[in-house]
Amino acid sequence: MLEHGGRLRAAAQRYGIPENEWLDLSAGINPNGWPVPPVSAEIWQALPQDDDGLVAAACACYGTTRLLAVSGSQAAIQSLPSLRSPSKVALVAPSYAEHAHAWQRCGHQVAGVPAEEIFQADADVKVIVNPNNPTGKLFSRDELLNLRARLAARGGWLVVDEAFIDAAPEHSLASVCPLPGLIVLRSLGKFFGLAGARVGFVLAEENLLQQLAELLGPWPVAAPSRYVATLALRDTEWQRATRKSLPAAAQRLAELLRAHDLKPSGGCCLFQWVRCAGAVSVHEQLARQSILTRLFEQPASVRFGLPHDEAQWARLAEALGRVER
């Protein structure tokens, strides 16, 4: 299993600090997520139904006509490589490590390349997280669509993981789907703050969606998750307000880090990424103060998520003031 953010219980055990005393900034999830209402016992007891309104709500939200609901985009990441014969696969590095892991596990020839080289890389499949995690690099729609056309012309795929794009949907490729050779992944875990619901979507051509649906089997998303996700996707007022508040919070985080000699090397509306030689030390010093960040070994860097409220902002600022560089 690869390392991920959000492993709060493990951190509590490692540092001997009770779980309820931690400030978890490790996962890049909106700390002020969509307000989940109570879910009735009737929904908990029901088998999921494909015609419950979830797909229609997602299509309306993303501006597309066809998609497949999956158990978080992670389910698609793990399954897509098995739908293609052994191929050359190029991925942006660094990026979300599960992509490379999944393609390698299915016998594909995988190469990680810097973001500026992904368009020229020799590959049948190219995987791009947009905006990238953890660097925050944002690729334009035009350059991605041009890349898609070149790949599709020779039977290739462009896989675009848009897990962090909901705060800036104008950069999404969802509205042009379906297109030959284009696979777009969306998730409710980050922007909506519903990581525990495990709801994601795949946007692609019909034949590929059918293959993926058969591979994943019936009921990939639980009925309570489908219910909550449908309501969240329909709540356009909350989405508009959140798209206004997140950029300001991200800018505030960047300025706070910069004030403590931790200048961000990149980021997006949900996290800031600091690349520095002392990344391990920064991560450890904060952990000893019960603040959990996401540490990356290659390149040495630390990712910071957003605090939830003023008390957490003050707590982070105080802890950063104690970090020795």
Descriptive notes:
It is a single chain. The protein contains 11 helices and 13 strands. With 325 residues, it is α/β, with parallel strands linked by helices. It has 2 domains: 8-33 and 237-321, Aspartate Aminotransferase, domain 1 (Alpha-Beta Complex), CATH 3.90.1150; 41-234, 3-Layer(aba) Sandwich (Aspartate Aminotransferase, domain 2). The strands form 3 sheets. The chain has a 7-stranded mixed sheet with strand order 2-8-7-6-5-3-4, with helices on both faces. Strand 9 (266-268) and strand 10 form a beta hairpin. Helix 4 packs parallel to helix 5. It is globular. The model has no long low-confidence stretch (mean pLDDT 96).
Topology:
Blueprint: H1 8-15, E1 23-24, H2 41-45, H3 54-62, E2 68-70, H4 72-79, E3 88-92, H5 97-105, E4 109-113, E5 125-129, H6 141-152, E6 157-161, E7 182-187, E8 200-203, H7 206-216, H8 223-234, H9 236-259, E9 266-268, E10 271-275, H10 279-287, E11 291-292, E12 294-296, E13 301-305, H11 310-321
Parallel strand pairs: 1-11, 3-4, 3-5, 5-6, 6-7
Antiparallel strand pairs: 2-8, 7-8, 9-10, 10-13, 12-13
Helix pairs in contact: 3-8, 4-5
